[in-house]
From TrEMBL:
InterPro entries listed in its UniProt record: DciA-like
Biased composition (Low complexity): 28-51
UniProt name for this protein: DciA family protein
Span list, region Disordered: 1-82, 170-193
UniProt superkingdom: Bacteria
Length: 193
């Protein structure tokens, strides 16, 4: 290749015999050795910079862990139990009070005990006042006597200030009145006819 065809002239630094091109370099490297040295230095700088930048998580034992590495130990990206996820959601949305009220109705047997639950059922919870219907008037009387301990049991199960007062009544009597209009009278008697 001659100088007139776009090639290099033999007078350039690459044409000097004996590696004199690297003579002005402090390490004296030339050609492939110089390229290898520059590449190694760049790799070392990149790894050093990435190592300081990528350290973020500190595990419980104080050892640092690379970001993006899941390794042994808990990681916030690990699968979570459904109950823990629901607890976080309930707290984030402010659903503690409705969830506690739902527990009173949904888990009545667990809240008050098996024997009491067999003879009573919650009817309405409004403004912290729980209405409970007993199976019989005798059980209604018994539950009125146990109201203080029932309130403590409910508070220990669902939290304080969910139920502040109990209204306990016996079974509802059947109503003979139907419709919006009624006639005053003595009501049903022992015979029909």
């Amino acid at each position: 290749m001659g100088p007139g065809r776009g090639g290099r002239t033999p007078e350039g630094p690459e044409a000097k015999p004996g590696g004199e091109a690297g003579a002005d370099r402090p390490d004296g490297a030339a050609g492939p050795e110089l390229a290898r040295a520059v590449l190694d230095a760049a790799k070392a700088r990149r790894q050093a910079a990435a190592g300081t930048r990528r350290r973020s998580a500190v595990r419980g034992d104080g050892e640092k862990r690379l970001r993006g590495y899941s390794g042994p130990g808990p990681d916030p990206r690990d699968p979570q139990p459904l109950g823990a996820v629901l607890d976080k959601l309930v707290k984030a949305r402010g659903w503690q009070q409705p969830a506690a009220e739902a527990t009173v109705f949904g888990a009545w047997e667990r809240v008050v005990g098996e024997e009491v639950a067999q003879h009573s059922r919650p009817v309405k919870l409004e403004n912290g006042e729980l209405t409970v219907e007993a199976r019989s008037t005798a059980w209604a009387t018994q539950l009125r006597l146990l109201a203080g301990s029932l309130l403590k049991q409910i508070a220990s199960e669902v939290g304080h200030n969910v139920v502040r007062k109990l209204h306990i009544h016996g079974p509802a009597a059947p109503s003979w009145s139907r419709g919006p209009r009624r006639v005053r009278g003595r009501g049903p008697r022992d015979t029909y006819g």
